[in-house]
Amino acid sequence: MPERDRPRRRTAPAPSPTIRLRRLRRTEALREWVAETEVELRRLIYPLFVRPGRGGSEAVSSMPGVFRYPVGEVGPLARRLADEGIRSVLLFGAARRKDDEGSDAWARDGVVPEAVRAVKRAAPSLVVVTDVCLCAYTVHGHCGLVRNGAVVNDASCERLGRVALAHARAGADVVAPSAMMDGQVSAIRAALDRAGHEETAVLAYSSKHASAFYGPFREAEDSTPAFGDRRGYQMDWRNAREALREMERDAAEGADLLMVKPALTSLDLLTRARKRFLLPLAAYQVSGEYAMIKAAAAAGALEERAAVEETLGALRRAGADLIVTYFARDVARWSREGR
Ligand code: PBG
Question: Which residue minimizes the CA distance to atom 10 of ligand 1?
Answer without folding.
Answer: 214
